[in-house]
Inverse folding.
């Protein structure tokens, strides 16, 4: 049985089959982006072990094709197993070993990027300062103690945990929080409409109707979550609050002499430094509205190290700092605001090392055969 497994995982036929399946998966997943949208297609085809088919009107999910994780994992196992079985140490095999190691790094690097990379956005108006970026599609419930002027105490609850509808506590905030109703994507109305259900007993709202919507999969559209949150203190219920991505300003309430704010906001990633937008420039081609270049001049301030310097961020010239890369992504229509795309990818150097290693391996392997051949030719 062990010999059969070794032969199976070291087989060249398995390599060819997996490569063909990978080509089919890439083609199928790319075509599926049209009806499913980019993010859903990525999750269902490439960030999964199987591609599932769900019959209409049924909750069954039937696996019909291997997903990206399964194909990539088997390719990695196949490559390592074949190398360990057939590789014979020696000078003439150095190039082959380098090529194999480079391909392994490519696969591992993609896996690290998929699991560890974090993307967010930093929206700055001219003259504004921020020390955090925000997720594009993930939300959190924030209960903030704003009583003290020098520091805030924040209870941040992820959207997934909030949807569990269990009581959530934190030692720094003497409150219990629970979502009585949660809608991953929703529409709100101030008057009764068909398909909307009323929400009653809310603090700060007299009449609100909500309708649950299916998940958005189009690239330029987002889910808009809504929740009815019950806040309880030492003396009983404090209130029921409507929190939603539609509501931009946080709601305030008091409890035991402390003042709190509650809001459903995009997940925040705080930094040990701040960026202050000093100037934003938007250049256009003469006589047109086509952007030629747009750039942001920011002031980077890091109190713990005393670092304070100006940085110009523009297209193809990002800011790389603190393990993150800040790209000039977009801007506000009035040219008074800038949007920076923030990427944290611990494995970003892996593909570069892998490509260099594969290239060097090809050169070494070529020279190992070329040099002896030229010597034989010269000898004759």
């Amino acid at each position: 049985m062990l010999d059969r497994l070794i032969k199976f995982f070291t087989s060249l036929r398995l390599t060819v089959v997996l490569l063909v399946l990978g080509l089919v998966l890439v083609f199928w997943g790319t075509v599926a982006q049209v009806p499913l949208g980019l993010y859903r297609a990525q999750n269902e085809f490439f960030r999964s072990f199987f591609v599932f088919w769900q019959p209409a009107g049924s909750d069954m999910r039937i696996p019909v094709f291997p997903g990206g994780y399964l194909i990539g994992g088997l390719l990695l196992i196949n490559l390592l197993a074949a190398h360990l079985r057939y590789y014979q140490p020696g000078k003439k095999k150095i190039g082959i070993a380098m090529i194999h190691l480079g391909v392994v790094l490519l696969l591992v690097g993609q896996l690290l990027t998929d699991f560890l990379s974090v993307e967010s956005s930093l929206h700055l108006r001219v003259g504004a300062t921020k020390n955090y970026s925000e997720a594009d599609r993930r939300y959190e419930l924030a209960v903030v103690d704003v009583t003290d002027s020098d520091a805030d105490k924040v209870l941040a609850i992820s959207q997934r945990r909030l949807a569990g509808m269990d009581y959530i506590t934190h030692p720094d905030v003497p409150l219990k929080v629970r979502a009585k109703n949660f809608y991953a994507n929703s529409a709100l109305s101030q008057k009764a409409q068909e398909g909307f259900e009323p929400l009653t007993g809310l603090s700060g709202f007299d009449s609100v109707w909500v309708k649950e919507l299916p998940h958005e999969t189009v690239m330029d559209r987002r889910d808009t979550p809504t929740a009815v949150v019950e806040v309880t203190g030492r003396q009983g219920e404090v209130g029921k609050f409507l929190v939603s991505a539609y509501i931009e300003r946080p709601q305030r309430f008091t409890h035991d002499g402390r003042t709190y704010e509650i809001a459903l906001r995009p997940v925040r990633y705080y930094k040990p430094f701040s960026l202050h937008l000093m100037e934003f420039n938007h250049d256009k081609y003469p006589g047109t509205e086509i952007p030629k270049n747009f750039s942001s001049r920011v002031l980077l301030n890091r109190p713990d190290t005393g670092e304070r310097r100006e940085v110009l961020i523009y297209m193809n010239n990002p800011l790389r700092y603190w393990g993150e890369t800040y790209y000039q992504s977009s801007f506000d229509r009035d040219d008074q605001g800038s949007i920076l795309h923030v990427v944290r990818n611990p494995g970003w150097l892996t593909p570069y090392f892998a490509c260099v290693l594969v290239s060097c391996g090809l050169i070494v392997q070529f020279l190992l055969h070329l040099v002896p051949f030229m010597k034989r030719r010269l000898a004759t």
